[in-house]
Amino acid sequence: MLNVVIFGPPGAGKGTQSEKLIEKYGFVHISTGDMFRAHIKNQTPLGKKVIEYTDNGLLVPDSITIDMLQEEVNNNPQAKGFLFDGFPRTVPQAEALDALMEKNGSAIHAVVALEVTEEEVRGRIRKRREVSQRADDEDEKVNKRIDEYFNKTIHVLPFYEQQGRLERVNGIGDIDEIFENICKALA
Ligand code: ADP
Hints:
The protein contains nine helices and five strands. By secondary structure, it is an alpha/beta fold. Adenosine-5'-diphosphate binds next to α2 and α3.
């Protein structure tokens, strides 16, 4: 069983690379951003609680996010491996994920960090906005999401690095080449 986290700022290419990784490794994909968007679309009680955060580019509180993620992992006992996308975004989330995996007799084996400059992600999101349906792709909200990444989420990197689980991969360039480099890092 291989469990991987794909990590990077908004616009780093996590979604694109996740699709390729799922196809190759058969991961069960858990994207907290997708889960929140589905809850909002379906107007569930959870969706109503989180919309004030997601719509403004702010992180949803850890307690809500961690509970939702734990439930999703526990709903997939047959999984051969998980790909976590957009989670963990804080150190408490990273600690909760380790505890959860350990409880299930498993672990997070690698965290693939897609390295992209702030300038590049701003440019990519600006482009994506032209075709995006996402409420959080507006200018001011994008700025907030990028700030949240550089203020809070980036601290997750040293957490994994100190434990030798961090794999840095250049996220700028050809999509297939980036994918190959991720696969090499996981080999
Ligand atoms: P991005 O394109 O910014 O990587 P995502 O699709 O992963 O965005 O997430 C969209 C929004 O959902 C975030 O801006 C945040 O409000 C919320 N969210 C997603 N994952 C988490 C998380 N692990 N912790 C807190 N909030 C989260």
